[in-house]
Design brief:
Order of helices and strands: EEHEEHHEHHHHEHEHEHEHEHEHHEEEE
Strand content: 15-25%
Number of strands: 15
Number of domains: 1
Distance between the termini: 9 Å
CATH class: Alpha Beta
Radius of gyration: 21 Å
Low-confidence stretches: none
Helix content: 25-40%
CATH superfamily: Thiolase/Chalcone synthase
CATH architecture: 3-Layer(aba) Sandwich
Mean pLDDT: 92
Structural class: alpha/beta
Largest sheet: 11 strands, mixed
Number of helices: 14
Shape: globular
């Protein structure tokens, strides 16, 4: 039950997923296999003066009933809790709020949003300065507990009874994959028998949408939201912001086997590589992307030819899809495996993306079905990859999947998930 480096094999025994498509693993996976889009017009705040008016949003029950719109950290915590609960139920581990391992939480940086800032300015008699806001915020435990960066992780750790201090981290668009990597490594080092890896994001709020628009990162294809996200396609012009959460229950294979757990797959390889070329763009030579992919495959003890499918980062920006193609060709040569992008259906879930896509990669192996890249109407002649266009594809004998996560700021993490032995 060891890998090629003598480390404990890391098994996945539980999966939980929340996306704009659905709350729940199987409902999400069914929608993804069917090529369903979860992108729609933003309804939770006014968008009439925004360049981009669409997103993949996850509405909470009280919001759908016409109640108050909650802040991003509250949304993150609610989606994260739902994903962890589903994963724990499948794993049949952590009963009665006692989980035998740590919690790794990948989530966005948390900061006051406009409603809170406006409220503080009103309390300061219209003075919107930082100093005035700090003075009137003194003693506001509600703000402190909601927006403190580590607060979400602490409350989730208390709720699920994880051991040790929870680790809350953010590595831009690679965050969810980073959380999985940290959980895997804690088991490989023998520090724990099990861990919960979680990625969650609820950043569809006015300031975040405007910031990404100013970076020219978002598509403004507002007229037909379901057709807006088009990774690898010739007319792609930016990504669609989205939100969601995914959780994996990870255990050493020995621990899972001893307790009779059903093993859903193996997290067999993790690879990372950073570059400091630009805030949003990769180095044109693709070196960090290429190295992250190779590191993950090497870490799994595999050769590139062993990878049967790649779950793409596939954002739909002209730059990302070009660079991912470059990386695929460098790593796999003239015969790369099929690659497709879940983001064509659910949008870019930012801090949650790496975890959601790893979860979908495990389900890809389970059902031997490659999810499609929808909205692929006009192929880009510069992207010579099999992107599984528009319709899911049944396969057989698929054992190893590479899941790519390439973040802003040159933060790149790739994972290899494999079939259970």
């Amino acid at each position: 039950m060891k890998d090629h480096l003598g480390r404990p094999l890391v098994a996945v025994t539980g999966i939980g997923i929340v996306t704009p498509l659905a709350w729940g693993r199987e409902a999400n996976w069914s929608a993804v296999k069917a090529g369903t889009s979860g992108i729609s017009r933003i309804r939770r705040f006014p968008v009439d003066k925004l360049r981009t008016t669409i997103a993949g949003t996850v509405e909470l029950p009280e919001e759908t009933a016409g109640g108050e719109i909650v802040s991003s950290p509250v949304r993150v915590e609610r989606m994260a809790a739902a994903a962890v609960e589903e994963a724990l139920a499948q794993a049949a581990l952590g009963a009665e709020g006692a989980f035998p391992g740590p919690l790794m939480v990948g989530m966005p940086p948390v900061e006051y949003e406009w409603p809170q800032r406006f409220d503080l300015a009103r309390r300061a008699n219209g003075n919107g300065s930082y100093r005035a806001a700090i003075e009137v915020a003194t003693g506001r435990e509600d703000l402190y507990e909601t927006f403190l960066f580590g607060g979400v992780g602490e409350r989730l750790a208390a709720r699920f009874g994880t051991t040790g201090a929870p680790i809350a981290l953010t590595t831009a668009c690679a965050t969810g994959a980073s959380a999985i990597q940290m959980a895997v490594e804690s088991i490989q080092r023998g520090e724990s028998d099990a861990a919960i890896a979680l990625g969650a994001d609820g950043s569809v709020q006015p300031e975040a949408v405007i910031r990404f628009s100013l970076l020219s990162a978002l598509t403004a294809r507002n007229e037909e939201p379901t057709k807006a996200s088009r990774p690898f396609e010739k007319t792609r012009d930016g990504f669609v912001m989205s939100e969601g959460a995914a959780a994996l229950v990870l255990e050493s294979l020995e621990h899972a086997t001893k307790r009779g757990a059903t093993v859903l797959g193996i997290l067999s390889g993790c690879g990372e590589r950073a570059d400091n070329f630009h805030r949003t763009r990769s180095n044109p030579d693709g070196s960090a992307i290429i190295r992250a992919m190779r590191n993950a495959i090497d870490d799994a003890g595999l050769q590139p030819g062993d990878i049967g499918y790649v779950n793409a980062h596939g954002t739909g920006t002209p730059e990302n899809d070009k660079m991912e193609t470059l990386g695929m060709r460098a790593v796999f040569g003239d015969a790369p495996p099929p690659i497709s992008s879940n983001k064509s259906m659910i949008g870019h879930t930012l801090s949650a993306a790496g975890a959601i896509e790893a979860a979908f990669s495990l389900l890809t192996i389970r059902d031997q079905v490659l999810p499609p890249t929808i909205n692929h109407n006009e192929p880009d002649p510069a992207i010579t990859l099999d992107v599984v266009p528009n319709v899911a594809r049944e396969v057989s004998g698929l054992r190893h999947v590479l899941s790519n996560s390439f973040g802003f700021g040159g933060q790149n993490v790739c994972l290899v998930v494999s079939a259970a032995p």
